[in-house]
Design goal:
The chain is α/β, with parallel strands linked by helices. Helix content is about 40%, strand content about 15%. Strand 18 and strand 19 form a beta hairpin. Bound molecules: alpha-D-glucopyranose (GLC).
């Protein structure tokens, strides 16, 4: 948009910009800057317009964008241009992701490079390597307490190793996802160290207060993220005689985004990693970016404005890079991280689908799909050119963040139902076979979340312990079923390392003082590569899970209807154990796929007559796209075996596949 005030400011900035930038031929940069400048200016003025140094800050911002653009390699710029042309590139069904710690998965970054073959074998082509920037030794919240944003921790390798890995991935058409921990730094970061020494400039990077007045006002409404290990939201720093805001752990200091220098530093860091080859950047804990007294300081409007500004800036310098929002908040709030008041994604193109994740776990425990169907029915429609990251497990706990109204509409009482889920997954409910452990138990509110590996939570650990074949089979079926859901729901499926070979809980974290109080380490394994070899051993647990997932992934990639264009239609059926939806493709209308999943221990049936009346499919002669077989149909009822699912297409139309 052309707007006079913005453009006269842009001219002024171009006059004031460093001579070394001015002299260069930056045709594409200026084209993109011109296109985005109105948005950048409007957001920047909204956030920082009342400052006297507003113009200098804007000049600084544009300089950073230009410097990082100049630094961007030709290869990455070519990729930018390709992705600008094919701007829906990340919505394709071909992408399948896996998240892992470099250390736990393969020792270090060189190890990760050596394991690319393993990932390809499974069908993974998007890697999310958990944070590996420099961290203090000891507790670092699994890498989320960073002491140097521009260096790799020597425990995992070097910038050169990352460069080699990124180059290798590009050759394999695999994507690299890196974290940028935008909300906080370690208290050992240079900025924090200088704040401790009393430097005002750096105290302004954080929320520092000489007494409890302001902290106490904040505490009235701030919830606690880690109530067991880090109660309260402020920590006393003896050296500077200041209370410092630390919403997560005491050693993670929250950055103050009402200071434009913090914003400019952070966009510089984001672009630094974009230039090191990140295709996707996961922005950590984005719900917390803006703090306001009298609120929970989560999901504030300004947090969204900051993300929009980050996106607009990134688009000027590195438009091929997309963002993931890590915002584990209620469904109505999550959806806003794609961009508020927009048609196409304007903040983060990708967001964690914590809603689907928690709902799937509800169905595992209850063996019915009442809440799952209800929750998905109320999942707001997302913007175009935006997609979900669908996952079952990740490095974090499982929060039971359902909408209470959905719980009630499913016939439960919210507090009792959450208590049931917690008891069930921690093995405290009747004959529960789940072997999870509680996380973040809050004595004041009674809330708790759940840690545990996928395999242990679905009962594989208990089954193996007693050597019960039926239980083992059921657990493997459940693991496959859950993956069948994230692979077909619409969005990028994100597998979690170790789940592909049925990795169980690992208690060894209890021996490490820096980890023992954080139960999430129970599901952050070190891969046993000898066990992984058993994937070639016919009939082993590892073989059965690995080959099942490998097959599903391969089939997913061939189904156009699984690309994400908001092309999912939930089907409410009169069987509470089934989760049913249809996927279609706007350009290949005949390629509808009917997904039917049975979460119950008994076979269930679905009446097809009602379905025939809708959509393109006649559902006369169905074929399962995974096995190629026709499913059992009795009269007009489709029979779905226990803990199983189908991806069904119509035999008449599927010739087009
Ligand atoms: C994110 C991470 C989590 C971490 C927190 C604080 O939620 O996923 O592991 O503890 O941010 O950085």
């Amino acid at each position: 948009m052309y707007e006079q005030v913005s453009h006269s400011l842009l001219n002024q900035i171009l006059d004031e910009i460093k001579p070394e930038i001015r002299k260069r031929n930056l045709l594409r940069f200026y084209t993109r800057l011109g296109a985005n400048f109105y948005a950048i200016h409007s957001l920047f003025i909204h956030l920082y317009g009342d400052r006297e140094d507003f113009l200098q800050q804007m000049v600084k911002l544009v300089e950073v964008l230009a410097m990082r653009y100049i630094e961007r390699s030709e290869e990455l710029e070519a990729l930018d241009i390709e992705r600008e042309l094919n701007h829906n590139w990340f919505l394709d069904q071909k992408w399948v992701a896996m998240a892992f710690y470099a250390e736990g998965f393969a020792g270090d970054l060189k190890g990760v490079r050596n394991k690319c073959g393993y990932l390809s074998e499974l069908g993974i082509n998007m890697l999310h390597i958990m944070p590996m920037m420099k961290c203090p030794p000891g507790a670092s919240d699994g890498g989320y307490a960073i002491s140097d944003f521009r260096d790799i921790d020597e425990r995992y390798g070097s910038i050169d190793d990352l460069h080699d890995l990124a180059e290798n991935l590009r050759k394999r058409d695999m994507l690299l996802t890196l974290d940028v921990v935008v909300n906080h730094t370690s208290d050992q970061h240079d900025w924090a160290m200088r704040a401790k020494q009393g430097e005002k400039k750096f105290q302004d990077f954080y929320y520092c207060f000489p007494d409890r007045d302001v902290p106490d006002m904040f505490e009235e409404t701030l919830p606690e993220v880690f109530p067991e290990t880090s109660p309260g939201n402020f920590v006393w720093n003896e050296e500077s005689q200041r209370w410092v805001m630390s919403v997560f752990n005491d050693y993670q200091w929250d950055l103050n985004y009402s200071n434009p220098t913090v914003f400019i530093e952070m966009i510089d860091i984001i672009l630094f990693w974009a230039n090191r080859g990140a295709d996707v950047i996961r922005l950590d804990a984005v719900a917390f970016l803006w703090k306001k007294i009298g609120t929970t300081s989560q999901n504030e409007r300004e947090a969204h404005l900051i993300l929009q500004l980050m996106k607009d800036c990134c688009q000027v310098t590195a438009p091929g890079v997309v963002f993931i929002a890590e915002a584990i908040v209620t469904p109505t709030e999550i959806i806003k991280y794609f961009g508020e008041d927009a048609v196409i994604a304007k903040e983060c193109e990708i967001a964690y689908n914590a809603t689907l994740m928690a709902l799937l776990w509800d169905s595992v425990a209850t063996k019915n799909t009442k809440l799952l169907t209800q929750g998905i029915k109320n999942l707001p429609t997302k913007l175009n050119r935006a997609t979900w990251l669908n996952y079952i497990r990740c490095h974090d706990d499982i929060g039971l963040g359902f909408d209470d109204r959905d719980i009630v509409a499913s016939g439960y009482q919210p507090a009792t139902h959450r208590k049931f889920l917690l008891d069930y997954f921690t093995g405290n409910y009747d004959n529960s076979i789940a072997r999870g452990v509680p996380f973040g138990h809050n004595l004041k509110t009674g809330d708790a979340r759940i840690s545990g590996s996928l395999a242990s939570l679905v009962g594989l650990e208990s089954a193996l312990k007693i050597g019960d074949q039926k239980m083992i089979n059921d657990a493997i079926k459940m693991i496959t079923l859950l993956h069948g859901m994230i692979l077909s729901f619409g969005g990028i499926p994100l597998l979690y390392y170790g789940d592909e070979i049925g990795t169980l809980n690992d208690d060894s974290y209890l021996l490490d003082e820096s980890k023992a109080s954080d139960t999430r380490w129970i599901h952050r394994p070190r891969i046993d590569w000898e066990r992984a070899e058993l994937r070639y051993h016919n009939g082993s647990v590892e073989n059965r899970i690995f080959t099942a997932l490998q097959k599903l992934i391969a089939v997913r990639k061939t189904i156009h209807a699984f690309a994400d264009f908001n092309n999912r239609e939930l089907v409410e059926v009169d069987n509470d154990h089934l989760f049913v939806f249809i996927r279609n493709h706007p350009e290949h209308q005949r390629e509808e796929v009917l997904v039917v999943a049975n979460f119950d221990a008994n076979p269930q049936h679905l009446n097809l007559l009602a379905l025939r009346k809708r959509g393109q499919l006649s559902f006369m002669q169905l074929r399962d796209l995974v096995t190629g077989d026709s499913p059992a149909i009795f009269k007009d009822d489709l029979v779905v075996p226990p803990y199983s699912f189908y991806w069904l297409s119509d035999l008449h139309t599927s010739a087009a596949f």
